[in-house]
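Hi R.,

Here's the chain you asked about this morning:
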Amino acid sequence: MKNQKRIRDFSITIGEMKTGKYNSITDVPGVKVGHSTLNEGDIKTGVTAILPHDGNTVYSLSTFRI
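And the predicted structure, written out as tokens:
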């Protein structure tokens, strides 16, 4: 995957905004990302969590706006 080209390598741009410093979801202020991996014998699994802000994401309507 390291040699895989990104879509912008083909002069295709999506959206109007420029990418952030690291071109990562964590470039967005307030966004937090965490992960955990379990690798024990035959068990290989993991989970990633993305929190869009510090507030309560379950009760916040801003989480579900488009």
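Residues 20-64 form one domain.

Let me know if you need anything else.
M.
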